[in-house]
Amino acid sequence: MEKNYRPNVAAVIVSSNYPEKCEIFIAQRSDIPGAWQFPQGGVDDNEKPRDALFRELKEEIGTGEVDVIAEYPGWISYDFPETVAKKMYPFDGQKQKYFFVRLKKGAKIKLDTKTPEFVEYKFVNVGDLMEEVSHFKRPIYKKVINYFKKAGYL
After folding, report:
1. Coil, helix or strand at residue 8
2. Closest CA to 40 of 61, 17, 9
3. 56-60, 82-86, 134-138: which has the minimum mean pLDDT?
4. Ranges of each domain in the chain
5. How far is 81 from 149, CA to CA, in rounded Å?
6. Are 126 and 62 in contact (CB under 8 A)?
7. In which element (H, E) is residue 143 found?
8. pTM of the model
């Protein structure tokens, strides 16, 4: 049976100190204590991925003040764990377009948005990233981070 993947964008955000200092933004979900991840969100019908990126960043971290530095070529898909799949019906997983972005100097992160998705955020170095993020996201994150490393961004 063919799987139904929800189109989604995700952001690998580095601080405004990049490239001098490479700190990657992750945030803890409000609905799953201890689950840390990159900001991400669905692409609406007839919406371009880049437009969805800026909308989602504003909705999730309170700012769209970023510079897009690079884009992962293509989409990466993954299946939801069973616990998440019920909540996300009729989707079996997500296909994601990843963007590598830098926060602009002076950009203010504000997690108390209209519908807060995150309760806390921090910047981690790339070497610590995989220990910090949710287990089922690690294979995708590794693929994306390795691409941005090989391309010379990390």
Report:
1. strand
2. 9
3. 82-86
4. 5-150
5. 28
6. no
7. helix 138-150
8. 0.94
